[in-house]
Task: structure prediction
Amino acid sequence: MQAIQNKRHTADFIFSDEDKKHLTSLLLKVTSSPFNNYPTFLAAIQRLAKSDEIPTSLREFCQKSKKRNFVEQPYVYLKNCPVDEKLPFLDWQNPREQKLLLKKTHVGEGFLVLYSELTGTPTLAYRFGGNGDYIRDVHPSKAFQKSHTSQTLTSFGFHKELPIRDTSPDFLRIMGLRSNPVNEILTTFVKNVDIINYLDEETLNVLRSKVFHTPFTVLSVNVDKTNILGKAPENHAIIDDFEISYHEGRTEGITPESKAAILKLNACLKELKKGIFLGSGDFVDFANKYCLHAKDVNQVADEVAVKQRWLIKTFNAYDIRNFEPFFVKGRYGLVNG
Ligand SMILES: [Fe+2]
Result:
C-alpha cells in the first residue's frame, strides 16, 4: 500500500520475540483485573517490576527514558511489546461494557502499568474522563463517532491532552491492540520546540498572548454533573515557554490577529507532523507538555475494521506530589476533575 503520509517515526526499542514471550507469560500470571480492582492489579505489577524476571534491556531502556530531555525528545516508540493473544471484538454501541464482559486477560494493560513502574511515573485516573479508569480505551463508539474525542471514527486535530487544566498529565502512553494495516490510520506528533523554531517571531508573540479560548470537551462536561470543573478560562496563551496549550479545531482566537496566528500554527503542524502506525504491540510514550498529538485517517480500505480499531492508554505523572492536592479524598491517584 502506498502511504499517503510518508514521514514516519522509526522505533526506539524493539522487543525480541523471546523477551516478548517471557514477559507475556509473566503478565498472564497476574489474575486480578485492572478494571474491577486496580489497587490489587497495581500491587501485583509492582511486585513484578521489582523482580529480576524483567528483561534487563527493558529495565535499562525505561531508566534512560525517564532521564531523557523531554523538550528535545518528547516521544519514544517501542515495538513488539506484550499484548493479549486473544482479543474480543467489542460492539461499538457500548464498547466499555463489552470489554468488561469479554476481556479476560490483561497483558497489554499490565505492560502499560509495568512501564510506568519501571520509569517511576505513576498512572493517574480522572473523575470526568474515561469513566474514572486508570487504563482507558481508544475505541470508536456510535454515540461519539463524529466528536472531538478519542471515540471518533474520523481524524482528530493536534492537541495537548487536557490543554487548559492544572491537572494536565505529564505523559501519555498509548498501546495498539488492534488496527488493521489495510487502513492507514496514524497517530501523529509534532515537537513543540520544532513549532517554535519554525514560526516567525510576530506569530509567536501573538501565540504567547492571552487571546485564545478552548472549551472543555463534551465528554468531561457531560460527566461533571456538579460543575466541579467550572467554566473554561475566558482567555489563555497557547505558548508558554516550551509548553503549547492547544486543540486544533477547538481552540479559537478572540481577535483578528489571534485567528490569523492559528491558521499559521495549523499550516506549520501540517508541515512538521510525523506519524506512527500503532498496530498490535506498538507502544508510544510521550511528554504531553512538549509535543502535540493527533489522529490522521488517511486511507480506509476496510470500514468495518475502523470501527474495531482498539488502542489503550494511560495518563501519567512525572512527580505524583504535584497531583496529590487534586485527588478525590480517599482515592489516591484519582484526580477530581
Ligand atoms: Fe489525545
Notes: The pocket of fe (ii) ion is lined by residues 159, 161, 293 (CB under 6 Å).
